[in-house]
Design brief:
The chain is mostly helical. The protein is built from three helices and no strands.
């Protein structure tokens, strides 16, 4: 699909872009989630179910990136333990 996206879709996608301050596993996880979101928006049309799915993907990304940070032993302040 190469049609313009609804503002709701664009808003949700921007929150799935990997944070450039991440590194290691956390960045890898964020990148996988972002690519999945981009692939899904290529396959699916805009609509309330896509938006709900992208919101849930954003929530999942938060959890999975935190796990990646914990796996790298990084605390909430961004310091390696």
């Amino acid at each position: 699909m190469n049609e313009p996206r609804q503002p709701e879709t664009e808003h949700l996608i921007k929150w799935l872009v990997p944070n450039p301050r991440l590194d290691g596993i956390a960045l890898d996880v964020a990148t996988v989630i972002y690519r999945a979101a981009k692939d899904l928006t290529t396959l699916l049309r805009d609509g309330p179910e896509l938006w709900a799915g992208l919101r849930k993907l954003r929530e999942a990304k938060d959890c999975l990136v935190i796990q990646g940070l914990e796996d790298c032993h990084v605390n909430a302040e961004g310091q390696k333990e």
